[in-house]
Amino acid sequence: MYILGISCFYHDSSACLLKDGEVIAAAQEERFSREKNTSAFPIHSILYCLKQGGIDIKQVDHVAYFEKPFLKFARVIQDHLRSWPFSWPSFLRAMPKWLAGRLSLPLTIEDELGYTGPVYFIKHHLSHAASSYYPSGFEEAAIITADGVGEWATFSVGVGRGRTIEVIKEIHYPNSLGLLYTAVTVFLGFDAHGGEGKLMGLAGYGTPERYRRQIRDVLKIRSDGSFELNQAYFAFRAGNKMWGSKWVEVFGQPRDRNEAWTQEHYDLAAACQDVVEEAILLNARLLQEKTGLKKLCLAGGVTLNCVANAKILKTTGFDDIFVQPAAGDAGGALGAAFFVYHGLLKHEKRSRMQHAYLGPEFSDAEIESALMKFGLVSKRLNQEDLCEYVGQAIADNKAIGWFQGRMEFGPRALGNRSIIGNAAFAGMKDILNSRIKKREAFRPFAPIVLQENCTDYFDLKIASPYMLLAPTVLENMRAAVPAITHVDGTARVQTCDEASNPLLRKLIQASAKRTGVPVIINTSFNRKGEPVVCRPEHAIECFLATQMDLLAIGPFVVEKPKGALA
Amino acid sequence: MEKKLSRFHLALQKVLPSPLFKALRRLEWFLISIVLQKILGTIALFFIYFFVLGPTSLVARIFFSRSLSSKTLSKDSKWVAADGYNEDLEAAKFQS
Lengths: 566, 96
Fold this sequence. Notes:
A: alpha/beta, B: 62% helix
């Protein structure tokens, strides 16, 4: 049985394909269309999924969509009713999008794909919950979902047992942790739906005290875990802008994106991170006490907050956490498909998600042809030699493009579309930043560590295969891995085991022989503002356009041509 | 109208290079349809917003103000009961 999951029309459009309950392909549309966070109908992702499954659209039994469009539309209309006549500009902006596609998804699917079978609409937060619980491998688990807003819900708690998910209660729009986080993100000059991770990094430089009282007036947390966004500070219900005059009165003017950073900016970021953490931790604690369960599943954009996730593990009664690697809306496609399979079609047998390498891969011939197209001279190596060669390059503090196997699903590059370097070399962060990534200096780079060495370096008792936990780097080890330790002493760790990525393990082992640490630095293979690379051509273009030293693409190694401009 | 368009075309022909003028003529109806769509779309939305949503909003605010706020589990809480999750296959086909 084939089920196609689709998420689109807001941000991070994606598609996935389930075969008898197992994910065989999943990818975000932005990787193909090269438009970051695209909201377009994910036609390329769908075609890729069908190709990967070796089927055509006629063989798809069910299509699952990640939310209920009419319910969401009702919420949008209610906001316009509340704020009429001030919402006219936003009404004029939003309605064509709704009428052009959002309310006619079955027609769009029929037009684009020729599919006329059943389409199921799964509630947004149920899709999130399902995306985390079903592939977690847990027999039973507590579930928390948190994001900006779905139809009405912005936050929900529930329990998964066997093939059933029970959503216990939820918090409704406009009370939203995600919207608060996005408001502060935009206020500090970052982009919404992408800049939130930067805000998390920025928070490490500040202390929450300066704005603690004020931010607690913005987000009022009650003892039962519920919370309220004080609407006196916001203007998003009229749809024209995020914050209102009271916000500006209290927090000042928004930062221009070219403006220099000040301690006030850092402290506001820290206060926002602090209050959001408090709400999540309180709910995790209450849910654990109420259910007595020891496993927790997390999904929704807010749960990409790896700092908060690590604190849940450390300070609540949960001893294991599964966070969906595509925790944002992209993962909604996966959740909707899973829910149709287990929740609606009542299939009991669940399979654990082993890895997030669900995107396309390319044959050696395709890679070689791309290299030839760009006129690049390459060396072909077997796997052992490739790892030794690149391991030596890491020890030589080179910046290396590492393009191998299937592309990752979700926002993180997990070692198949990565730029890697020496975690033991303090200057590596500056090299990657100045030569390739050109990103803000405050943003940390993440480590990949061999699973068995994780506890030697990090205060983390469980595996973190998807880079969604940011534990503390052990104090006595900080000097050994200076390139990946953030200013607050944490690191966004990815653990690597044999089953999920044997080639990456070999590479880290080869590097460890030379550097003395089984840790490498990892950042996504892309340039600033671009989606992560997907095809060999994207990787080669990025390699040539930046000052990367080496490209390891499939079995081929390419040194930067002498005199090449970047 | 025909005459005016022709004059318009003649004027364009005088000021634009020939290839650009030809390309524009080919695009003409396409561009006109886009402009019309924008104008008519805006008029239709204006009508809906001010003559349908407006009165509805006023009535809702006066007589049904509680329907515009969410129904929480209690006065002191912001939790809302999670309804509508136990769907069957048929119910899941609905978009609402």
